[in-house]
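Bug #77: duplicate submission created two jobs. Keeping one. Sequence:
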Amino acid sequence: MAAPPPSSAGPRRAGALPKTPPLTPEPPTGSTPMRRGRLAAGLVVALACHVPATGLWLFSFYMFIYHASPDSLFMVGYLVVLLQLALFAGCVLTGGWLVFHGDRSLGLGLLIGWTAGIITLVVGTILILYSAPTDTAAALGAIHGLA
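Kept job's structure:
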């Protein structure tokens, strides 16, 4: 009886199987692994920096809507814009630089914290605006020529 051809000899003669890639990708070389403490530190720093800018705006906007003190709102508006630009430079640009140069945890914490602060600013402004009494909203519309 003759030996079977090599292609049908069975799994033992086929050789070693190729290696499969790992299920979780390896972090890029030169970067540190994600650390929750550094991520939380970046979040806390960004949100703590947002407190003066966002709080100043929301308090002044509340006073403008409910107590009609327009003299301070516009100066505060310019100050808040300057503070937000400084936060953008401090959080987004620094956070992006940190992410691309190896410290992903702190960089992502700064980016996420800045985003959360901006969302808080927008949502707080909308909530104050929609919680205003109807006569105040009509008076604001008349002031700005909307009525």
